[in-house]
Target: PD-(D/E)XK nuclease-like domain-containing protein
Amino acid sequence: MNILMRVDAYVTRWLAGLPDTTNTANVERRESLHCDPSSKKRRRSSSSRIPTPPASLRKDMDPEDDPFSGGPETPLTKKRRIDDPHATPQASYNSISQAPSVSTTSASSASGRSRKSSPTKAFTRLEISNPLKLRFDEFDGINTDYPIPEALQQVRVQLGAFSTNQRIIPRRDRTAAAPLVKGSPFPLTDMAYYDDDDESCRYGRMVPVDEVRIITNNSRYCAMHRAAEVVWNTEVHHQILRCALRGNDGNVGSGLVNFTICTSALINRHIIHRGPSKMVDFCFYIDSNVASRSDPAVNDAVTELRAWSPSEAVNHTDFTMMRNHPIALSIESKKQAGNHDDATLQIGTWHAAQWRFLARIRASKGLTLDGLEFLPGLIVQGNDWFFVASTRRDDETTLWTEQPIGSTRSALGTYQVIRAVQYLAWWCQEIYWPWFKENIFDLEPQST
Model:
């Protein structure tokens, strides 16, 4: 007897044994018409419920043939009551006591009605419970406890040059770009232009003037209409990264350094045992598929690391898009006038988790993180872009904030941002990737 015949016989047998409930239902309906009108509760008629087959009939069937079975029996759990289907889920008391609670969705950050912990309280809670050993400092702080690494200071100097209009516009576009930048209060000198082929420390194509104009106009539009974070990400931030890092065709696999939006990427629970995971919005990553074209050993190294990694990925997150591609730089974005403290805490936590992941890999080999002096990051708030970075000393992570690199309020500022992004992508290719290959993948360094 096949499965359909067994199910049919089973259902027929069960239906034949059902009692006649017609009279009972009529009585219950009449009683409901004469119930106390002051009562606000309605008695639920048992006859309105869909009958369920008794266990005495079901136990005779093979569980795999039971049409009412969802598979192996699992313990029932009480459903969580949700008053507001749009409210941000709240962490439990135990998890809140272990780590700062900061929501990362634009919906929760946009409303003061949310019951989530404020960034101020989250920073305060770090003083009591700080499982990732995260601290914060300022690049230009006078009384800083730790010196900034020389390699990080050199990156800051380069970014500072771009933010003061040095080598930000391709010389070939000098005439075409003139109408866009003529309103700047800072007259441009010859230092603002770089030669097409001779400019060092730059990754990516030369962005056409028309694309700079579009990004600047989109940015102005978003600011005027007080656009939500997701709109900023789509219309401005993503466009900047696409223009700066991808080829003319916009192909995702066009180069070694690429980027992806990753708002749903979570820190793996093996890194943070308790407390809510913090998320970022974009990441630069090393495309292992592109890297394997010049070094086939990369594919085997990816497979080996994923087999060892608790996240089953080569990163501190198991986010699918980056499971095979090492994260090199992270970006946290907010809408214009968004919560800057929130962004600082989010990218700081993300960086601390990344450091811990890398440290565990090195420790499994009896080694330390020598050679990696910092991890770069960006905080974007609507128009405005800021460089941040984290360093690690012993097992403590310090997030350094923050250095302005440009603003898409103007075309000149857009050029500054694009040039800074391309410089940081160059750093990912020339500095971070060789270190990662040698120290995490255990591969011989190789020019890219």
